Amino acid sequence: MLHIKKLTKRFGENVAVDSATLEIDKPCMIGIIGRSGAGKSTLLRMINRLTDASDGEILFGGRDVTKLKGRDKRAWQADCAMIFQQFNLVPRMDVVSNVLHGTLNRHSTLATMFNLFPIADIHRAIDILDRLGIAEHAPKRAEALSGGQQQRVAIARALMQDPSIILADEPIASLDPMNAQVVMQALRRIHEEDGRTVIANLHTLDTARRYCDRVVGMRDGRIVFDGLPEQLTTGVAREIYGADASFSEEATSTEIETLDATQKALMEAEATI
Length: 273
Ligand SMILES: Nc1ncnc2c1ncn2[C@@H]1O[C@H](COP(=O)(O)OP(=O)(O)OP(=O)(O)O)[C@@H](O)[C@H]1O
Ligand SMILES: [Mg+2]
Hints:
The chain is 39% helix and 22% strand. It is an alpha/beta fold. The chain has one domain (2-272): P-loop containing nucleotide triphosphate hydrolases (Rossmann fold, 3-Layer(aba) Sandwich).
């Protein structure tokens, strides 16, 4: 399906991604982990063609997408929609218009300027918002929503493009544990129910283990681990993060598990009242 071959990105002397090879044969949910500067964002940005590769190939459906230009390149960018840590919504615009901007490359600039979207697209946008549990916020300005709700709007905008692949660069890094959980569950459902591939850069081990079928570890631009979540032992994690003996899982842990423990404790407390 998606075959990344010896993909390399150089910034001057610095090799941000160093001959990365990754084969994805069937739709799956992949978590990419690694310390800051390991090359995770650069890898996703090359896949989406936000930045050009220095070397290597990205094969999808038999075509090398690193060579696409113009309309073909835009079609590819829609087919591997990207979501970001900072949501990248238009804050003062209403939620449904933000979502409709996911169809931007299908409409004329003039129609988009005046927010003239086909009624069928508006219905679809609201259906997608409903699926993500935020349809009642459709008329509100994006900036009036919580971080987790805004990230779901960004996911809805990506889904408007009906992509085969969703690339998520640290989608929960700005969210509190509760919202982080809701957003990761939404991405997981989109993978399971629609058969879309999700590739997410994650800065915590527990999130990768918990939501992903496959984990890829990057260090200094290279892929140093590619396996199942259960193969991601503390020893392997130490190698990926290049940490010394003082490496602790807690340092790379979100509070999602703490949240679960708190919820469980609360439920137990309620049960005894
Ligand atoms: N536009 C750029 N110009 C020059 N160097 C860059 C550029 N973008 C990234 N780099 C360098 O490439 C390397 C990889 O950066 P990248 O942002 O991909 O890492 P990352 O794994 O996403 O890190 P983080 O976890 O902090 O987001 C770093 O050394 C970074 O300084
Ligand atoms: Mg990054």
